[in-house]
Amino acid sequence: MGTLSRDEVEHVAHLARLGLTDAELTRLVGQLNHILDQYAILARLDTDTIPPTAQTIELENILREDVARPSLSQAEALANAPERDGSYVVVPAILGGD
Amino acid sequence: MTDTGLTRLTAAAMSDRLRDGDLSSRELVEAHLALADRENPALNAWLALDGAGARDAADDADARLAVARDEGAAALASLHPLCGVPVGLKDLVSVRGGQCTAGSRILAGYVSPYDAHITERLRDAGAVILGKLNMDEFAMGSSTEHSAYGPTANPWDLGRVPGGSSGGSAASVAAGHVPLSIGTDTGGSIRQPAALCGIVGLKPTYGRVSRYGIVAFASSLDQIGPFARDAAMLLHAVAGRDERDSTSAPLPVPDDLLHLPATDDEAAGYLRGLRLGIPHEYFVAGMEPGVEARVREAVAALAAAGAEIVDVSLPHTDYGLATYYIVAPAEASANLARYDGIRFGHAVRDGDVLANYLATRGSGFGAEVKRRIMLGTYALSAGYYDAYYLKAQKVRTLIKADFDAAFGAGIDALVAPTSPSVAWPFGAKLDDPVAMYLSDACTLPVSMAGLPGISIPAGLSDGLPVGLQLIGPAWSELALFRLARAYEAITADASWRVLEPPGLAALRAPAGIVP
Predict the structure, then answer these.
(1) Could you confirm whether B189 is annotated as catalytic?
(2) Is B113 in contact with A52 (Cβ distance < 8 A)?
(3) Where are the domains of chain B?
(4) Which B residues in the span 381-410 are in contact with A, Cβ-Cβ below 8 Å?
């Protein structure tokens, strides 16, 4: 199944939005490859005709009435936000400019 | 000196005495709080003890009990047996107004804005929540060493791990700080620490207990369950359908969970004619001889008491580890995307939005959580999905089919070790993730199949507890408890049953006397 290079580990870290130090990257290259080696055992099984299992209890389509119900107040919903301005959560600008 | 006598009662005994009125919930709570306060510096099982909240809840429970006693037997019977009984919660269960760290720095300072479903159910039952228990960060780990708040010690030997990820839940019960606690199990996180701490722990069938208000790890595997010396009544209190968790099953929860056999003779009678399967793949190379010996002795005792023992094969057992360590990290990488430093939790400002994400997540997550997010992100990434995630889901089908075939052939339950080893010294597996993962080899396949499993004490190896794992078909929790109760009955006279965890003995010795 191949070996993960340091560049590939850096790319996966970017996809996962994880800021990693050089030391962490170095350690992860070794550890992730050791773990991926364990996955190789799966290649022994022919699974071409086997359907995948995503969940085990075979419940489907449990629906409820679409009615409004009490929920958290705005103050409660925003209480844990690291940075607030009145009733808004503050984030850096995403679209161009300052 | 604390009345440690009260803290060694089973939850059922507490319940009986509370109803009789010869013991108050407040007395129970004071005794347990005092013991937990005194021993937690050595154990680090509790991340938070809520003395004020627990005393208020105990007084409320005492008032409910007093009213019911005045009204008569029917009113008393309508109270849940947990009314007035102290419980502890793993610190990933939301309790309104309290902390919920999930063992992570990234949730430091977070305050739960609402109660989890099981918190509501426990409050309705009148149970008294004593506090929040330590765990591996986001429930990823098998030793509780991956907690951002320091490891928990094993009450049997303070230099060894309690197992994980629900290590605080297991250690607190083994130490008698609470008679009951709640944990979660994704790949073994209830059963393995129960085994290593010498207590009972049940992972129910996937879907048995609502996860509304629980911090998510791997959504197709996570399940909530009880730790105890008598766990059935706690499962009864929290199980059942809740529309806020669409995977919680619309099936009745048997009231007989509250009526397990009281006498050993009646309990042992359950074994006659029962067909128990012994999956030979679970007795693997690398298993400690002392663990295998205790499990073989337990099987022999079950046979001697009238159970039919059948050798069975679960041929895809060896694929459990690889399958789990693809599926669970993949689901975790998606679930943990929510920790973005914007709406709640730890936040680091480092420039633009991307820089904030990298800095917040890079400094907020610990090493094991980063490893799992990396594994999961890789397994789901373009070009690798079919080779890893889809392949693992197909092998999951084969693992589940192994169990279906065994139960379909008339096996009532499977008997196996819970963990291939007893508790190990701190640090022994910390730098070798694969060695740590292998410690869950006997519980991972059961989780992949969504089945219930219970770990019960089966004696000691080198002075440390060994767990026996009983595995049943979906929704067979009541049958597993009856089987567990039967095993307890036929080993009621075993010398190890009356042992106290020795690791805390020095702390409990009267002042001035040093052994």
Answers:
(1) yes
(2) no
(3) 10-315+405-508, 318-397
(4) 381, 387-388, 390-398, 400
Digit-coded pLDDT (tens) for A10-32: 999 999 999 999 999 999 999 99
Token pair, residue B194, equals 């129960």
Phi, psi of B247 (to 5 degrees): -90, 0
Whether A83 is in a domain gets the answer no
Separation CA B180–CA B82 (nearest Å): 10
pLDDT cut 90: percent of chain B above it = 93
Q: Is the pTM of this model over 0.90?
A: yes
- Which residues, other chains included, contact A14 with Cβ-Cβ below 8 Å and sequence gap of 6+? none
* ipTM rounded to 2 decimals: 0.94
Name which of A4, A5, A12 to mutate to probe chain B: the one with the most chain B Cβ atoms within 10 A of its Cβ.
A12
A86's tokens: 């009145």
Evaluate whether residue A96 is within a structural domain.
no
Question: B317 — contact with chain A (CB < 8 Å)?
Answer: no
Q: pLDDT digit string (tens) for B28-40?
A: 999 999 999 999 9
Q: How far from chain centre, in Å, is Cα A98?
A: 29
| Residue B485, pLDDT score | 97
Would you call B429 a catalytic residue per the annotation?
A: no
A94 close contact with B: CB closer than 8 A: yes
Show the domain range for A37: 6-44
Q: Tell me which residue of B32, B78, B79 sits closest to B54, measured CA to CA.
A: B32
Dist. CA B216–CA B210, nearest whole Å: 12
Determine the distance in angstroms separating the CA of A89 from the nearest CA of chain B, rounded to an integer: 7
Residue A64: closest CA among chain B residues belongs to which residue? B243
Q: Domain B10-315+405-508 belongs to what topology?
A: Amidase signature (AS) enzymes (3.90.1300)
State residue B509's pLDDT score. Answer: 65
Number of domains into which chain A is organized: 1
Compare CB distances from B359 to A19, A41, A72 and report the shortest one's residue: A19
Chain B closest-CA separation from residue A52 CA (Å): 4
CATH number at residue A12: 1.10.20
Q: Is B392 in contact with A42 (Cβ distance < 8 A)? A: yes
CB distance B394–A79 less than 8 Å?
no
Calculated CA dihedral for residues B301, B198, B131, B68, nearest 10 degrees:
30
Query: Is A74 at the interface with chain B, CB within 8 A?
Result: no
Taking only the tens place, the pLDDT of each residue in B185-196 is: 999 999 999 999
Task: Provide φ and ψ at B93, rounded to 5°.
Answer: -100, 125
Shortest distance between the Cα of B308 and any Cα of chain A, in A, equals: 29
